[in-house]
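Quick one: co-fold with zinc ion.
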Amino acid sequence: MIVTAAELFKVAYGRFAVGAYNINNMEQTHGLFRGAIQSQSPFVIQISRGARKYADKRMLEAMIRAAETIYPDAVFVVHLDHGDEATCYDCIDSGFYSSVMIDASHEPFEKNVEITRRVVERAHAKGVSVEAELGMLGGVEEDIKVEDGHACLTDPDQAKEFVQLTGCDSLACAIGTSHGAYKFKGRQSIHFDVLEKIQQRLPGFPLVMHGSSSVPQSEIMRINAAGGKLDPSACGVNDDEYLPAAKLGVTKINIDTDGRLVWTRVHREYFRDHPEDFDFRGPGRVFMTEYANFIASRSEKLGSKNTLSEVRAAILEQRKNKAA
Ligand code: G3H
Ligand code: 13P
Ligand code: ZN
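Sure, here it is.
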């Protein structure tokens, strides 16, 4: 069942966070749906502009629609990750996406408001939810690289003003995390003080945490032991901090890099251990199982495990009340 982010976040707010996972191919899609069902958890499946270019947006839509019939119990949001204005409109008009992110966070405040406001109008007319971003995370996202030192944390007072002016449904905040496998540069960690201030100014309003992969050292070591050359200084978010962040209003936690690490580890180890093999289905099967287990482990850390039937019932109730 495809739901909007607004519907799902109403149920999750203050209790648990929903994992948002980027997909680019069939193996990730199967692994994600399986892991979510295994852990009885709702989720956000998110598609970046890069993924739409890589796989073709029609291929991704067809794959997700197929997954919906293969895994009929799944409850999920179909979301555009880090969209620009034109891609947001394409997704809104497609009738397939139930949520889009307009990322104009690199623009000055007024321009960010102006662009976001336009996207909100178009999206809400079609019942699509909108995530916007204020503040700047470090690291690389799509074609924009934010150098260390240029990243800036979200200003809590501006966050309130931004939400009031734009009418967005959720807000991605910069609270110390960054995209990719090299976060924090030795400094810890999520800025809970900033998060708390944002929540005080926007009580009940869903917040989003990007750059939330945990980058397990064990994955880095296994990848390097199997021929990889990842910098051992790789570092991620402490996954025991997901739930405390959720209690402070973070309802969506974005995880992409960790899935790439699982993929890389599985494929490097597989071909190291089966040097005579050249059938991609061997490592593909292992990856789908490992990725499903990884997703299930995230559901536990996010607090979303075993919430599926309650979430489905609550959203059906919301829809009934809205129709009445
Ligand atoms: O924030 C970026 C996400 O990790 C998606 O990455 O643009 O390489 O698909 P991508
Ligand atoms: P990670 O790079 O930490 O997985 O973050 C992904 C993300 O924020 C996608 O929007
Ligand atoms: Zn992101």
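If it helps, Residues 22, 81-82, 179-180, 210-213, 254-258 surround 1,3-dihydroxyacetonephosphate (ligand 2) (CB under 6 Å).
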